[in-house]
Write a structure and sequence with these properties.
Shape: globular
Structural class: alpha/beta
Number of strands: 14
Distance between the termini: 12 Å
Helix content: 40-55%
Strand order of the largest sheet: 3-4-2-1-5-6-7-8
Largest sheet: 8 strands, mixed
Oligomer: single chain
């Protein structure tokens, strides 16, 4: 191969690398994408550009570290889309050999994939067509529709309406986007199954994620952890399964009264719209915390930047991946690579990331009694905690190895242009 291969990525958020130039606050998300593209830009065989959907007024082009960044204003009427003229402008300006889209669930991704007629590689994040039957987190919705608890009943109705109105409307766009791709990329057996179900004609390629720098450099130590402290990465929707975790914690509190749950993300008591605070999933979590008498055992940490996330993980006794469904949760990878003992739901792609009883303890996602037992085992056995820690770090260091994953992606690109 003699000519430079031009790769155009699309990203769902403004990347931290250029957030300041775009006049936007740096996001704690997307760091792995910045790392991957930064490494690719060092390879003289490739020219890299990234088109980012942004909350900005005007189209912008930024050149930084041998990467071209396109800031695309998102539509006022639909924040998940951009103007067709903006899509055309980016494609005509860069003229990629490969269009590489990151995630399929947003409308602008479908627009790019339908417009470009060259090679189209789509990296799957979470596949929401595979999430749909789990989106309401297996909540006891019928039981929640209790006229004696009107706030809880309204929450159940609101969650159902939100799924029908906002979530389901994205399913067709994701499916159409996946069907437009000539190549699909994933990293778990679960997303390979989703690729085969939706677009069996596309070639499937495997490439694991690169994690943010701090997590490779920070190692969990039992002596520095706060006993009986659990860390959870997200409680933003029923799919995240925090309601199951709270039931397990209520059971464990009888035996470990000092148990504490730290949850990354907005505090549902104080953040979000007034409507969400009244009838959103956060409202139901608050209801459970009060009903289960866990007011003094649960702490919301707010949105955490990279170093703060690592600090919280390092001080935790156990990381819990409580989601009812996930593809390959980055926070599980970050916890494993730091060596934090992990308890994870057997959900989606998590069995690809870890093996039960070796790198993590698994439980059925909607079974709080089994989750409680797994946590109890770690609380009562430092030997088990340290064994899981050692094996998890070793596995994650391989899975998320920078050189290995960059080479996997490079080989994918070279195979695509060769074919």
């Amino acid at each position: 191969m003699t000519k430079t291969v031009k790769i155009l990525w699309t990203a769902n958020i403004p990347l931290p690398a250029v957030a300041e130039q775009l006049g936007l606050p740096a996001s704690p998300f997307g760091g792995w994408l910045t790392l991957m593209t930064r490494e690719l830009a060092k390879d003289q065989r490739f020219k890299i550009a990234i088109a980012m959907r942004c909350p900005i007024a005007d189209f912008q082009v930024i050149e930084k570290d041998n990467i071209t960044y396109y800031g695309m204003p998102q539509l006022r009427a639909d924040q998940y889309d951009v103007e067709q003229s903006v899509c055309d402008r980016v494609l005509n300006h860069f003229k990629p050999d490969i269009l590489h889209c990151e995630g399929a669930e947003m409308r602008y991704t479908r627009r790019f994939l339908e417009t470009w007629q060259g090679e189209r590689l789509l990296s799957m994040q979470g596949v929401i067509n595979g999430y749909t039957q789990y989106e309401l987190g297996r909540l006891p919705l019928l039981g929640m529709l209790n006229p004696f608890h009107p706030k809880v009943a309204l929450t159940a109705v609101a969650l159902i309406v939100n799924k029908l109105w906002r979530f389901n409307s994205r399913l067709n766009h994701e499916r159409a986007a996946m069907q437009c791709a000539t190549h699909l990329m994933g990293r778990t057996e679960w997303d390979q199954a989703q690729a085969f179900a939706i677009n069996p004609a596309a070639s499937y390629h495997s490439c694991s994620r690169i994690l943010r720098d701090t997590f490779y450099q920070t190692q969990w130590q039992l002596e520095q952890a706060k006993r009986f402290t659990l860390f959870v990465g997200n409680a933003g929707s029923p799919r995240k399964g925090v309601h199951v975790l709270l039931q397990a914690v209520a059971q464990l509190k009888q035996h470990f009264p000092e148990i504490r749950v730290r949850i990354a993300g907005e505090n549902p008591h104080t953040k979000g719209s007034a409507v969400k605070r009244m009838i959103g999933y956060g409202s139901y979590i608050n209801h459970l915390i009060h009903t289960l008498k866990l007011d003094g055992n649960v702490e919301f940490l707010g949105v955490l930047q990279e170093h703060d996330m690592a600090k919280q993980l390092a001080s935790s006794h156990v990381y819990v991946m409580s989601s009812i469904i996930e593809n390959s949760p980055n926070t599980l990878g970050e916890a494993m690579i730091m060596g934090v003992p992990c308890v994870t739901a057997f959900a989606g792609g998590t069995p690809t990331m870890a093996t039960d009883e070796q790198e993590a303890l698994f439980y059925r996602a909607d079974d709080p009694a089994m989750l409680a037992l797994k946590l109890k085992r770690i609380f009562e056995s430092d030997e088990l905690a340290c064994r899981l820690s050692q094996h998890a770090r070793k596995k994650a260091m391989h899975t998320h190895n920078l050189e290995r994953n960059v080479n996997s992606l490079v080989n994918t690109y070279l195979q695509i242009v060769k074919d």
